[in-house]
Design brief:
By secondary structure, the chain is an alpha/beta fold. 32% of the residues lie in helices and 26% in strands.
Amino acid sequence: MKITDRDIDNGKPFDWGKTSLDYAKFRDIYPKEFYQKIVDRKLCIDGQSILDVGTGTGVLPRNMYQYGAKWRATDISGNQIEQAKILSKDMDIDYCVVPTEDISFSDNSFDVITACQCFWYFNHEIVMPKFYRMLKKEGKILVLYMAWLPFEDKIAGASEKLVLKYSPNWSGAGETIHQIDIPDCYKENFELVHHEEFTVRIPFTHESWNGRMKACRGIGASLTEKEISMWEQEHRTLLEHIAPNEFDILHYGAIAELKKR
């Protein structure tokens, strides 16, 4: 399903369904410490009911399933949910294809609502009241994010420049470490009780970093097949010149925890 938002990529349409195979293969890269920080907050653990919105290929529920929570997960893309179901074989995770603005679970259904790498895509004036209604008393919204740091990491910076060559309106470039921005409409009904920003080094090979970059919004989700092929050929050549066969990319992670008032 194509998405167009004038605040994202200057309104250039993108479709995560186009990149679902690469997304499934190359974007499950969060380190153990990322998940441990969630557990340390006593969130997404045994006895809790969780809704993961914008789940993509189910990265968050799949990796946190071991901690015992009961998961439901939604995404706007049927292709993403199809991959999530394949990757979640033998896990009791309830997946549903639905835009976050259209979700309609019962009142007081969830202890935690999670949003990983997707919070800025939502119409918050619509979804905030839904989140408030669906959360139990003192329920939490957990917003999660991780991104490479192009100004601190030369390989990430070079790869990002190549994305911008093919997708100059891509607004995902130029990340620096910062607190997750929470829209003002949440302030009346939710309290920010915790936020954290931290750096991590994520290991890659030429193949996995090329796949990770190809699966980003500026390439796989928005370019034509011909453009993607041209970018990929150029990116692989770039990596041969600037990167060893195995290397780390400096990222930062960010967490924002909101509590229902």
